[in-house]
Specification:
The protein contains 19 helices and 14 strands. It is α+β, with helices and mostly antiparallel strands. It folds into two domains: about 260 residues, Ribosomal Protein S5, domain 2 (2-Layer Sandwich); about 190 residues, Alpha-Beta Plaits (2-Layer Sandwich), CATH 3.30.70. The strands form two sheets. Strands 1, 2, 3, 4, 5, 6, 7, 8, 9 and 14 form a ten-stranded mixed sheet that branches. A four-stranded antiparallel sheet has the order 11-12-10-13. Strand 8 and strand 9 form a beta hairpin. The site of adenosine-5'-triphosphate (ATP) has 27 residues, from helix 9, strand 5, helix 10 and helix 11. Its EC number is 2.7.1.36.
Length: about 550
C-alpha cells in the first residue's frame, strides 16, 4: 500500500518529479495527457517494503559482507527481489492474494474502493448486425455478432492530495474531450442527489441522477466549447460513474479501435466497457481465473454490466432496443427479440469486409425517423418489420444448421455439381469449428486449403447472402440507406458478393460477406478505395466484455 506518509516523503525529498516517475506515468496515461502528467507525477508507486529494501541494500551489504551470515543475507536479498518482481499482478503493498478467483476478494483495501496506482481496465467489442436493425426497436428479431475490434477503458485512483478530496478526470481521445473536476465541486453540485450511499446492484439508477447529469453536461458543453456529439458519451459516463461509484476520485481514459458513429456499435462498446470497469472498481464483479491478462466476467456479473450499459445507451440513443449492448456484453452471435437473448451456439468466425462510407450520421435521429415513418404508414411499415422478422428467423435456422441450409438450397436451386460443391465449401467455411478465421484474400496464406474453383457468373447466392440482400432492400424501404451505401452494394455485386448496411445506416459502415472461393478481394478493396471508401477485414463471433486488473507499473494488456 502507498501510505500518505510515504507519499509525502517522496514529494518533499527534493528530486525532480518528472525524472522519477516519468516512465510509469507514460504507461499509466495517454502519453499526450498533459493534465494527467501534471497532477499524476511525484508519487512513488513502489510499495514501502520494496522501496525501503532497495534504499538499504548498500548499507546492508557493507555490514554483512565480511560476516559469516553473508551467504544467508545474500539469499534473503535475492529472494526479496524475486518476490518484488513477481508482485505487481497480485497488487501492490497491502493487497493479499486470495485463493478465490473472485476479484473483490483479491483486494484488501482500507480505502473506499481501490488504491492509488492500481488500474482496472475493461474492453468491449463492437458489433455487426447481420439482420434486423431498426425493426428490432419495434419488437422484431435481430441477429448480431461481436466484432474483433474493441473499446478499452482504463481507470485508476489518482494520487491522494493532502487536504482535498481529489478529482475526477475523463479523457476521451476519440472525441478530443478532456475534462477534469474537483470531487469537492461535484459533491456540491450534486448534493441534492445524496450520492454518498450508491448501490450498483440496484436496477438502473435513478431518473433524478440522469436529469441532473444532463443539465450539468449541457452547462459544461457551453463552458468548454464541447462538440454536440461528445455530450452523449460524457453524459453516459458521468451517469454511470455517479450511479456505480458515487463520488470517488478517479482518472479514466477511453480509447477505441471502432470508428465512432459508424454503425459498429461504438456507443454500446463504450457503455459496456465503462460499466464493467466501474463495477470492477466497486468490487461487484466475479472474474474467472486463468493466466490470461483479460479475464471473463462470471456468474451474474454480465447481466449487471448489461443492465448498466443499457442505461448508458438510453442516454446516447434515446430509444435503443438493447441489441448492441447485449452482443457487446455477451459476445458471440446472438438472436435478440424484445429483450430475449438466444445465443447462436455455432462457433462462428465469419470473414467479412467492412467498408466505411465515412458519411457521418446519428443513430438517435435515424431511429426517430424510422419511428415517424411507422406512424405515417402503420400498415406498410408493420409489413416491412414482419418481413425483417421472418428474415431473422431464417438466418438463425441457417446459422444453426448450415448443412440443412445447403441441402435445402440444392433441392430448390438444383445447381450443377460444380455449383453444389461451391455452396458446400462456402457453408463449411463459415463454420469452421477450430475457430479459424476464414481465408478472405488470395494473399492470406491458409496453405492447407486447396485453391477454390473459379465461380461461374452470374453465381447463385447462398441462402445467407440472399437473406442479407433482402434485408438491405427492406432497410431502403425504411429510409435508412444512403447513396454511398448503395454505391458500395453495387461495387461488391460486381464481384458477385452481397453487402448490407449495419447498425443505424444513413452512412456509416457496410459489410460484405466474403466467400472462400478465390474472389479477388484485393481488387475489390482497391475499387472501393478508389471510390473514396475505407475498407478493413474483420471476424465476427468473438468474446464479449472482459476485464483486466493490474498494478500500474506493468504495461497494458494491449501493449504486450
Ligand atoms: N470511444 C468513445 N468515446 C466516447 N464516446 C463515445 C465513444 N464511442 C462512442 N461514443 C458515444 O457514442 C456516440 C455514437 O453513437 P452512435 O450510436 O451514433 O454510433 P454507433 O454506436 O457507432 O453506431 P450504431 O448505433 O449504429 O451501431 C458518440 O457521439 C459518443 O457520444
Ligand atoms: C438502429 C438500431 O436497431 C441498431 C443500431 O446499431 C438501434 C437499436 O437497436 O437500438
Amino acid at each position: 500500500m502507498i501510505r500518505k506518509s510515504h507519499c509525502e516523503r517522496r514529494w518533499s525529498d527534493g528530486l525532480p518529479r518528472s525524472t522519477r516517475t516519468k516512465s510509469r506515468d507514460e504507461l499509466f496515461f495517454h502519453p499526450t495527457d498533459s493534465t494527467a502528467t501534471e497532477v499524476g507525477t511525484g508519487v512513488s508507486l513502489l510499495p514501502t517494503g520494496i522501496d525501503a529494501a532497495l534504499f538499504r541494500l548498500p548499507i546492508l551489504f557493507r555490514r554483512v559482507y565480511s560476516s559469516r551470515f553473508f551467504a544467508v543475507a545474500l539469499w534473503v536479498t535475492i529472494a526479496g527481489v524475486f518476490a518484488a518482481l513477481n508482485r505487481p499482478y497480485r497488487g501492490l503493498g497491502r493487497h493479499r492474494m486470495n485463493s478465490s478467483p473472485r476479484m473483490g476478494m483479491d483486494i484488501d483495501i482500507d480505502q473506499s474502493w481501490m488504491e492509488t496506482g492500481q488500474v482496472v481496465e475493461a474492453r468491449a467489442p463492437g458489433k455487426v448486425i447481420i439482420c434486423g436493425e431498426h425493426a428490432v426497436v419495434h419488437g422484431t428479431g435481430a441477429v448480431a455478432a461481436a466484432l474483433n475490434r474493441f473499446t478499452v477503458v482504463r481507470i485508476n485512483r489518482p494520487p491522494d492530495h493532502i487536504g482535498d478530496e481529489g478529482y475526477l478526470s475523463l479523457h476521451l481521445p476519440e472525441l478530443e474531450v478532456r475534462l477534469k473536476w474537483a470531487v469537492a465541486f461535484l459533491k456540491e453540485y450534486f448534493a441534492p442527489l445524496s450520492l454518498s450511499e450508491v448501490n450498483p446492484l440496484s436496477t438502473g439508477g435513478s431518473e433524478e441522477v440522469k436529469k441532473m447529469v444532463g443539465e450539468f453536461v449541457e452547462i459544461q458543453m457551453i463552458d468548454k466549447g464541447m462538440d454536440k456529439g461528445a455530450s452523449g458519451g460524457v453524459e453516459a459516463f458521468l451517469f454511470l460513474y455517479l450511479s456505480i461509484l458515487g463520488l470517488q476520485p478517479l482518472e479514466a481514459v477511453v480509447t477505441s479501435e471502432l470508428p465512432v458513429g459508424a454503425g459498429l456499435g461504438s456507443s454500446a462498446a463504450f457503455c459496456v466497457s465503462v460499466s464493467a470497469a466501474l463495477l470492477t472498481a466497486a468490487r461487484k464483479l466475479e472474474l474467472g481465473s486463468g493466466e490470461s491478462l483479460w479475464r471473463d466476467i462470471i456468474g451474474t456479473g454480465l447481466d449487471l454490466v448489461n443492465m448498466w450499459a443499457f442505461e448508458g445507451e438510453k442516454i446516447i440513443h434515446g430509444k435503443p432496443s438493447g441489441v448492441d449492448n447485449t452482443v457487446s456484453c455477451y459476445g458471440h452471435v446472438v438472436h435478440f427479440k424484445k429483450g430475449q437473448i438466444t445465443r447462436i451456439t455455432h462457433p462462428l468466425e465469419l470473414g467479412m469486409l467492412l467498408t466505411n462510407t465515412k458519411v457521418s450520421r446519428n443513430t438517435k435521429k435515424l431511429v426517430a425517423a424510422v419511428g415517424e415513418r411507422a406512424l405515417r404508414h402503420p400498415e406498410a411499415m408493420a409489413a416491412v418489420f414482419k418481413a425483417v422478422d421472418a428474415i431473422s428467423e431464417e438466418v438463425v435456422q441457417y446459422l444453426q444448421s448450415p448443412d440443412e441450409a445447403v441441402t435445402a438450397l440444392e433441392s430448390q436451386l438444383s445447381p450443377n455439381g460444380e455449383e453444389r460443391d461451391l455452396q458446400r465449401k462456402y457453408a463449411a467455411s463459415l463454420f469452421m469449428s477450430d475457430g479459424m478465421i476464414i481465408n478472405t484474400s488470395k494473399t492470406d496464406g491458409n496453405k492447407s486449403t486447396p485453391p477454390a474453383p473459379k465461380p461461374r457468373r452470374p453465381r447463385q447466392l447462398t441462402r445467407l447472402e440472399e437473406l442479407v440482400s433482402m434485408n438491405q432492400g427492406l432497410l431502403q424501404c425504411m429510409g435508412v440507406s444512403h447513396p454511398s451505401i448503395e454505391q458500395i452494394c453495387q461495387i461488391t455485386s460486381g464481384f458477385s458478393l452481397c453487402s448490407k448496411l449495419t447498425g443505424a445506416g444513413g452512412g456509416g459502415c457496410v459489410f460484405t460477406l466474403l466467400r472462400n472461393d478465390g474472389t479477388d478481394i484485393l481488387k475489390l478493396r482497391h475499387q472501393l478505395q478508389l471510390a473514396g471508401f475505407d475498407c478493413f477485414q474483420a471476424a465476427m463471433g468473438g468474446k464479449g466484455v472482459q476485464v483486466g486488473y493490474r498494478a500500474s507499473i506493468l504495461p497494458s494488456p494491449l501493449e504486450v
